[in-house]
Write a structure and sequence with these properties.
293 residues, alpha+beta, six-stranded antiparallel sheet, 8 helices, 6 strands
């Protein structure tokens, strides 16, 4: 059976032209992963393949925007803004890294990991809202939401992105070690304001299972591609939950990076967090911790 036949139907939004384009984008990523492992001709093939991926993605954005306008989709403006961020910010930055590293395997995997994480979250949250498969979350103003609302929003976001049901393990997670994990710290700041820090801790089994499901291919190693895909997913989760930590439009991402378990525990013990939740996804634990101001 070909890889094309192994498309995960839960990515479908119900519009053939859009679904076919998404299927093609994931197929290109899978091929680039295999090509990157070829020590002889892999680098040259990846250079050409990445150009093709970029051009195909940009053409797809244009087609998708035309479709949204044709049906009078009310979320068009914010959706186009997300496309523009990828067009004019993310992809150029990734291309610069590829060029400066002379298309090293590490930079190729960084490119693929970021694109894979972005595509998955964008399809599951933004694109499926076009056809009403889920609600358009950008319409909701949840400022001042209480803990129950935050828990519901977090569970909903994980369900839509990871396709997993969650249960709250603790509403007062104390930074306990729950196995080998990927830990990302995100810092947001408004001009002249105090920073907002968000920590996401994902058990490695959860990250591997999720990225394997994205690609329909088994992955067993926490390499750069898997780590970067996990990091990008954490950014999309934070984006959806930002309103709960008062990350209004004037807040901008200041930095995002991986930290070690030792660094996380040290920070956790020194800081007082506004939210500290631990969830079980059935494929690994997920912790969300936020300090607002």
């Amino acid at each position: 059976m070909s890889k094309e036949a192994e498309w995960n139907n839960h990515f479908n939004i119900g519009v053939d032209s859009i679904d076919n384009a998404h299927r093609k984008l994931f197929s290109i990523v899978r091929k680039l992963i295999h090509l990157s492992k070829d020590e002889n001709n892999g680098r040259w093939a990846c250079i050409e393949g990445i150009k093709y991926f970029k051009n195909y993605a940009i053409d797809h954005f244009t087609d998708e925007e035309a479709y949204m306008q044709s049906i009078g989709y009310k979320g068009y403006e914010i959706h186009k803004r997300l496309h523009d961020d990828m067009r004019y910010k993310t992809l150029p930055a990734l291309e610069k890294d590829l060029t400066e590293s002379n298309y090293s395997q590490e930079s190729i995997h960084h490119f693929l990991g970021i694109c894979l994480g972005w595509l998955t979250a964008h399809i599951m949250i933004e694109d499926r809202a076009i056809t009403g498969r889920i609600s358009n979350k950008w319409k909701k103003d949840n400022a001042g939401a209480d803990l129950d609302a935050l828990e519901d929003a977090l569970a909903s976001t994980i369900r839509e992105i990871f396709r997993l049901q969650t249960e709250i393990v603790s509403e007062h997670y104390s930074g306990d070690d729950f196995g080998n994990s990927l830990i990302i710290r995100l810092t947001y700041r408004a001009k002249g304001g105090l920073p907002v820090q968000i920590f996401m801790v994902m058990e490695e089994s959860l990250v591997l299972q999720t990225v394997s499901a994205m690609l329909n291919m088994p992955l067993t190693k926490m390499d750069k591609l898997v780590m970067n895909a996990g990091k990008e997913l954490s950014l999309r989760i934070a984006e959806q939950l930002g309103i709960y930590c008062h990350l209004s439009s004037q807040y901008r991402l200041e930095n995002s990076h991986f930290i070690t378990e030792e660094q996380f525990r040290k920070t956790f013990y020194l800081e007082i967090f506004d939210y500290s939740l631990l969830l079980n996804t059935g494929h690994g634990y997920f912790a969300f911790c936020a300090k607002c101001g």
